[in-house]
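User: Fold this; C-alpha cells only.

Assistant: Input:
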Amino acid sequence: MFDKASDQLKGHLSIAAAYTIFGLNVVLCKDIANSQAVDPFVLFTLRAIGATVIFWLLSLFAPKESIKKGDLWRIALASFLGLFLTQTTFLVGITMATSIDCAIIGTLGPVFTMIFSFFFLGEPITGKKAGGVAVSLAGVIFLIFNSVHSGGASATTPLGVVMLLLNSLTFSMYLGIFRPLISRYSVITFMKWAFLFALLMSLPLSAKGLITTDYEAIPVNVRWEIGYLIVFATVIAYYLIPYGQKYIRPTLVSMYNYLSPVLATVISIWTGMDVITWQKVLAATAIVGGAVLVSKSRAAGA
C-alpha cells in the first residue's frame, strides 16, 4: 500500500513539474514568435535535434534495451501525434494567439483525453468526470467567444484557435492511446526513438529554413529562450511526462493542463505581454471548478 502511494506521488510530482515548465514555455514561445527571428518549423527542428542528441547520449549510460518487433512503427506513430503534430501546431498557433488564450485553450486536453482513454484504455467516464469536464469546457468556450479578435500579433485569430485545438487534440490522443506502449520501455529508450522519428518528419518542412535562417541576427534573449525550449520544455518535460504516466491515469495526467493557464496568466500580466479581463477571470473560475470535480472522481464512482 505504501509503495503504491509512493509511486502515485512520484507520478503526480513528475507531471506537475512538466506542466509548470510548459506554463512558462507558453510565454517564452510567444516572445520568440513576436521576435519573428525563427520560423515555427525551424524552431521545432531545433528542439528535435537537441532532444535527439541528448536522449541518445543518455542512452549510452543507461541499460541496453531492445525494441520489440512491431513496436518501432508504433513509436513512430506516437512520435507523430505526441511530438511532431503537437509541437508544430502549438508553435504555429502561438503566432496567432495571446499567451493567456493559448494556455487556456490548451485546457481542453482533459476533454479529449477522457474520451480517448474511455475508448482505447477502458477508463470509465464517471458522473463527476463528465460534469467537471462540462463545466471546464463551458469556461473555455466562453473564453474563446470573448477573446477572438482580428489583426495583430498580440491578438487571437480563428485560425490560431484551430491550431491550438489541434495541439490539444493530438497530445490527448498521445496520452490516451499510447500509455501501454510508453510503459513498456524506459523513458530514455522511448524518447530517443520518438524524437529521432520527429526529427526526420520535420526535415522536409524545415530544411530550407535551417539553411537560410540568420542565426547571428537572433537577439540574445531569444537565444536563451530557445535554449530553455530545448532543454527544459523538450528534454526534461518530455522525460517527466512518460515517467509520470507509468504511475497515474491518462485523465489525471491531462488535468495538470490547468497549471499552464495560471502560470501563463501571472507571467504574461507581470511582463506586460497580455492583460486580464473579467471574461478571462470568469472563464478561469469555471475551468478550475471543473478541474476540482474531475480530480475528486474515482476510477469507478458516481
